[in-house]
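sry for the spam today, last one i promise. struct tokens for design, 62 residues
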């Protein structure tokens, strides 16, 4: 995945995480990858992006 495209995917995923606030990051990423036809092999990295964003949201809400 190209750097520009990769950053766009991460930013899109961060925005969707803020909107939907998923309870299960792995399932959320799996559905995202399938829906937007993201190449395989990035699920773990994208899951960590979702978990990090959820952590940021939870810490800022306190």
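last one done:
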């Amino acid at each position: 995945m190209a750097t520009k495209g990769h950053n766009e995917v991460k930013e899109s995923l961060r925005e969707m995480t803020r909107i939907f606030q998923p309870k299960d990051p792995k399932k959320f990423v799996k559905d995202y990858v399938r829906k937007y036809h993201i190449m395989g092999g990035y699920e773990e990295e994208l899951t960590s992006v979702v978990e990090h964003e959820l952590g940021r949201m939870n810490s800022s809400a306190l």
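The two ends are 36 Å apart (CA to CA). ok im logging off now
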